[in-house]
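Good morning,

Both structures are done.
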Amino acid sequence: MRLLDPLNSLAPAAVATGGPGSRRIDLFFTVPELAQLGRPNLWHRWWIEGSGWHPSGGWRQRGGLWASAVSATAYTGGRIDLFGLGRSHRLYQAVGSGDLDARGEWPRTNHGRPGDRDIISAPAALASGPGRTIVALRTVRVVEDGPDVRGVWFRVLDVPIESIPTTSDPWRWRRQLAPGWPASRASLRAAPGLASRAPGSLDLFGLTQGYGLQRTWIGGDQAHAWETFDEPGEGFLTSTPSVAVWQNHERPELSAMHVACCYGPFGPLPGAVAMKSWLGRHWNKQHLIYVDGSTDGRGVAGPPVLVSWGKPRLDVFFLSQANLVGAGLGITHGVSEDGHSWDFSEILPVPDLV
């Protein structure tokens, strides 16, 4: 079974922000192969409620030489932070702030790597406050006379935004986010996924060695063991989990989570996109939201990214390839207004790579 990992695949990134009447989705796309040629390879376009996709010409270049897919975060509508790997597989951060629609490249910061460990996956990033960002990455430490040590490390910013120092680095590498949390010892099949259902909580998702979905989480000061989902018919997942949350501000413990992954493949490419949801009190059964060829003969060609600006809306994006000769690649955009039925009729062109 072929594994589709965002470090090597053309996975889009997206973030949804804004309230009713001012909602927007910012979509990003990288082509890691171009970084090896010294060509900037991060593209950006955005959807604004009431006016559709911008810019009208397609995509805007944001610069950088990215060797992986990126992860996009936003706590407010005026700033976006992107995290990905540079050509030396160090962690980089790009920041867009102020006028997010303006032309030009976004400034970047090199965060390096955690000690003597190599980073072996694209990052998953989560912003839960103006001074609270967590980035999770799979790592490996090569041991000369023994088995390599694999796990998950975290790059953490956790300071009040008004007190961030200007003369020192406020970020820290951390192996543990809570005592006894098993995430640091995980040997995952693909990059992790991150989500937060409530203040002080953190959910981390990954794929087991048997291509099933697993989760571990922190609630308050308590760390929980890995939970696996192995109902009959579940599993066969082959990409990084992408997580969207419907926040319940009155009852945070009842906030819903939705997790999307590639399903399959049954050939050289994945066969479908699958989703599993925590509905506030229980998990539903894994089900397929898109099956290869279900829209104009197009197949799934890369990992999905799932976003939501609030219940009951969900948006999913993934690279797709037409089964018809000469039809080429596009990014399929799926929309659900109720969390159940989906419209996959919109296909966005990929950036012009020439």
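Second structure follows.
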Amino acid sequence: MNHLPPQELLDATHAFPGRFSFKAIGRTNDDFALRVVATVRATLEQEFDAPYALRETAGGRHIAVTIEPWVESSRQVIDVFAAIRGIEGLVMLM
């Protein structure tokens, strides 16, 4: 199954429509967390922010944003990953 293209792998392992969890880690400066939330909302063309949680590292240099929007398809998941990858200050995306 690991040899499938990303969209087929998502379709094989997740039920759509439904909630999907994204985690983005970035620098705490420059409103990184707010930009992640806004990017997800805009990419999915939703009126409201999806449920999310923030967790700052002990040293305060990085923040983890876990956001769980409602997605209709694996294509939307791929689109959200692509949009988040474009955010300045991103360190890791899961």
